[in-house]
Amino acid sequence: RRGQPCWYRKEGVGMIAINDAFLIEAAIYKILARRFRSRSYYVDILELFHETSHQTELGQMLDLITAPEDKVDLSKFSIEKYKCIVKYKTAFYSFYLPVALAMLMAGVKDAEAFSHAKTILLEMGEFFQIQDDYLDCYGAPAVIGKIGTDIEDNQCGWLVVQALARVTPEQRKILEANYGKKSPE
Q1: Any idea what DSSP says for residue 96?
Q2: 15 has a pLDDT exceeding 80
């Protein structure tokens, strides 16, 4: 991330990175057991972490099959698909997980409170991702800490789904001819 090569691309890592991911996930559950096994909410936080992992993996899969870097197909992009990717890939773990954990640790038992929190927090996560997508394109790298590559990487981002909803047929041809190209020109 942030200009560094992916772990699996480092020399000597390759497919070992898959196992590394499993080890990291297993370490999470070891830490949770060490710190929270004696707590009344232990099983609830385990279930929440499992559910969050599942949601995130679904979002990642949806992102990968919607927008593979090597095959641009803008017909797969829509605002509905974008919202689904964002909800599962980003909003659930970035916004709902920390608040739900705090609620569990504070002794909140009301299912309706969790439901309301989830609704609000997933929407906040969507707004966050929209802002992130905008900054990826227009933000100054020195300010945002990265060089945006969503367009070059064929990402199903907010800007492209908004453009697709508004383009003329001629503009769509231009977008299809240039979206996902590695040259930022």
Answers
A1: I
A2: yes
Give the amino acid at 101. Answer: L
CA distance 73 to 43: 42
| Distance in angstroms (rounded) separating the CA atoms of residues 67 and 164 | 15
* Cα separation, 65 vs 59, whole angstroms: 10
157 — phi, psi (to 5°)? -100, 170
149 confidence band (pLDDT: 50, 70, 90): confident
Q: Which two tokens stand for residue 78?
A: 């829509």
Which contacts of 98-103 are long-range, i.e. CB under 8 A and separated by 24 or more positions? Answer: 100/48, 101/45, 101/48
Smallest CA-to-CA distance from 23 within 7, 37, 10, 38 is with 7
pLDDT at res. 183:
75
Segment 67-92 shows an average pLDDT of 94
120 CB-near residues (< 8 Å, 6+ apart): none
Taking alpha carbons only, the member of 179, 185, 184 closest to residue 69 is 179
Alpha-carbon distance of 100 to 94, in angstroms, equals 11
49 token code pair: 């972490």
- Which of 5-9, 94-98, 114-118 is least confident? 5-9
In contact, 121 and 96? CB cutoff 8 Å: yes
